[in-house]
């Protein structure tokens, strides 16, 4: 008898090593099979390229590319196509600026339209019921400047303008040194409820003209 209590004693003629392994393993009945087990050497249905081979790295690249595409399609987004409403202040301001730019480009220069004018100055001051009135403006035109005398209403949400073309033409026709007067904006603004209301901003202007020597 062996004094080793952890291992059972077997006859000397029995293959002790083989029996010890069999005793240590869990025996399954013939009708039972471990889950996921398969006969050794049985094909899995998919051939795996050896690690480090060219086919192995190509398959990994294709797998990562497909996974990245799916992830980007889920998490990706498109930039919203923002369109300004035709009644928004930004749209009104942009439309008015484009209209004035086209009209200014179509006019003659001061030298071509009025050859006898050396300098033309327009002083604009605003008055109205609003608490915050627009700042005063001063425009000085030299002979190379465009002979354009229309100015947008300084309120950003107004679609009106102040046109001093007839005032300047009258002063030049009379060969006068200048003129003063008042105009009211005929444009419309947006109130707090986004409704169109008259602007009614008043403009006090002063037109001063300096003629070329001998032009008067």
Q: In words, what does this structure look like?
A:
The protein is an alpha+beta fold and 216 residues long. It has a domain at 89-211. The chain is built from five helices and eight strands, in the order ααααββββαββββ. The chain has helices at residues 16-24, 54-75, 89-106, 110-113, 165-173; strands spanning 117-127, 137-141, 150-152, 161-163, 178-184, 188-190, 196-198, 202-211. The strands form three sheets. The chain has a four-stranded antiparallel sheet with strand order 2-1-8-5, covered by helices on one side. The longest helix is centred in the N-terminal third of the chain and has 22 residues, at 54-75. Mean pLDDT is 75; it is low at 16-26 and 69-74.
Question: Which secondary structure elements does this structure contain, and how are they paired or packed?
Answer:
Elements: H1 16-24, H2 54-75, H3 89-106, H4 110-113, E1 117-127, E2 137-141, E3 150-152, E4 161-163, H5 165-173, E5 178-184, E6 188-190, E7 196-198, E8 202-211
């Amino acid at each position: 008898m062996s004094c080793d209590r952890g291992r059972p004693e077997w006859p000397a003629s029995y293959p002790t090593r083989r029996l010890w392994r069999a005793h240590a393993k869990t025996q399954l009945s013939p009708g039972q099979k471990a889950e996921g087990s398969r006969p050794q050497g049985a094909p899995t249905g998919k051939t795996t390229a050896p690690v480090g081979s060219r086919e192995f790295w190509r398959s990994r690249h294709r797998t990562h590319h497909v996974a990245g595409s799916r992830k980007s399609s889920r998490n990706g987004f498109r930039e919203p196509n923002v369109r300004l409403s035709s009644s928004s202040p930004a749209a009104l301001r942009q439309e008015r600026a484009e209209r004035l730019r086209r009209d200014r480009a179509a006019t003659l220069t001061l030298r071509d339209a009025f050859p006898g004018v050396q300098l033309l100055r327009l002083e604009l001051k605003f008055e109205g019921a609003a608490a915050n009135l627009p700042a005063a403006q001063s425009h000085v035109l030299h002979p190379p400047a465009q002979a354009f005398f229309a100015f947008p209403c300084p309120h950003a949400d107004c679609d009106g303008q102040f046109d001093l073309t007839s005032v300047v033409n009258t002063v030049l026709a009379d060969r006068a040194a200048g003129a003063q007067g008042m105009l009211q904006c005929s444009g419309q603004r947006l109130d707090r409820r986004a409704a169109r209301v008259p602007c009614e901003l008043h403009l006090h202007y002063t037109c001063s003209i300096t003629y070329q020597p001998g032009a008067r």
